[in-house]
Design goal:
By secondary structure, the protein is an all-alpha fold. It is built from 13 helices and no strands. The protein has 2 domains: about 40 residues; about 220 residues, MetI-like (MetI-like fold). Helix 3 packs across helix 7, helix 3 runs antiparallel to helix 10 and helix 12 packs antiparallel against helix 13.
């Protein structure tokens, strides 16, 4: 009888502990979500203000207290902003640079990372350390030497076959940057070696293993690199400012700056143009966010 009572008491104590743990867990989750909602609202306020300012009449931009919702919405601000300034050509120029850079970076960085992660050759780790050391070089240090290299190569100017965009596109075909190589290498090292060994036993070359075995398994990290590259090109200001010397070549970032110089007092037009140039980034991240987060999560598991 006493043994049964002790067992029943232990069971009730275990249930009480589970209930307390469940309460603490749910309270913690509620607090976590509350903090995340507050932080999300803080980050969304500037975007909301940009969108509403793009739809406001000019007088409502400077009143106090501020007008949060436009009354009435001025949808024509978008059309007028895109008409008085050639943002369509600026977006086309940026895409002309971003798409080749994105594809070239994915291919070249993954190809270099395959050599650093899956092929054992003398001095491999030392060479990889040298590649990583280039991350410590700021752009201000290499800016003038790179400009001289591209100028002497005759790739600066609208008359060139690449329409003057060569200095902005060609580096993506030559490795795509140490950071992208690092991301690919770390992800490739998480792929079991047995897959490559089995392919070698079947007579596959290293190039075929890279193309048919490794790349299909590396979609998360490739999507991550693609998104990083697109964002970098889309928001790049210093590169186009240095290498482009014609208004017809301007990219989105340079175009927005030029628009500010000429129509700086029209904040409604400025916000409308900024909203339009921000949309491609939001749309791209919306479609790639799951693969992007997976790539960031899995990269670097194995050193």
């Amino acid at each position: 009888m006493s043994r049964a009572l002790a067992s029943d008491s232990s069971l009730r104590a275990w249930v009480a502990r589970r209930q307390r743990h469940s309460v603490v867990y749910h309270v913690g989750r509620v607090l976590l979500y509350a903090v995340l909602i507050v932080l999300s609202a803080v980050f969304l306020v500037p975007l909301f203000w940009m969108l509403t300012s793009a739809l406001k009449p000019q007088p409502q931009l400077f009143v106090w207290p501020p007008v949060w919702l436009p009354d009435p919405p001025q949808w024509q601000n978008f059309g007028e902003a895109l008409t008085i300034f050639p943002f369509g050509s600026y977006i086309a120029n940026t895409l002309y640079i971003a798409i080749p850079c994105m594809l070239g970076t994915v291919l070249s960085s993954s190809f270099a990372a395959y050599g650093f992660s899956r092929i054992d050759w003398p001095g491999r780790d030392k060479v990889f350390a040298v590649v990583l050391s280039t991350l410590m070089l700021p752009f201000a240090v290499t800016m003038i030497p790179l400009y001289l290299v591209w100028r002497n190569a005759g790739l600066i100017g609208i008359e060139t076959p690449l329409r003057g965009f060569g200095p902005l596109i060609i580096p993506a075909l030559l490795g795509g940057g140490a950071f992208n190589i690092f991301l690919c290498r770390q992800f490739f090292m998480t792929i079991p070696n047995e897959l490559a060994e089995a392919a070698r036993m079947d007579g596959c070359s290293e190039l075929r293993i890279y193309w048919q075995v490794i790349l299909p398994l590396a979609k998360p990290v490739l999507a991550t690199i693609s998104l990083f590259t697109f964002l970098g090109v889309w928001n790049d200001f210093m590169g186009p400012l240095i290498y482009l010397n014609s208004i017809e070549q301007f990219t989105v970032s340079i175009g927005l700056r030029q628009f500010q110089f000429e129509y700086g007092a029209r904040y409604d037009y400025m916000m409308a143009a900024s909203t339009v140039t921000t949309l491609p980034i939001i749309i791209l991240f919306f479609f790639a966010q799951r693969t992007f987060i997976q790539g960031i999560t899995l990269t670097g598991i194995k050193a």
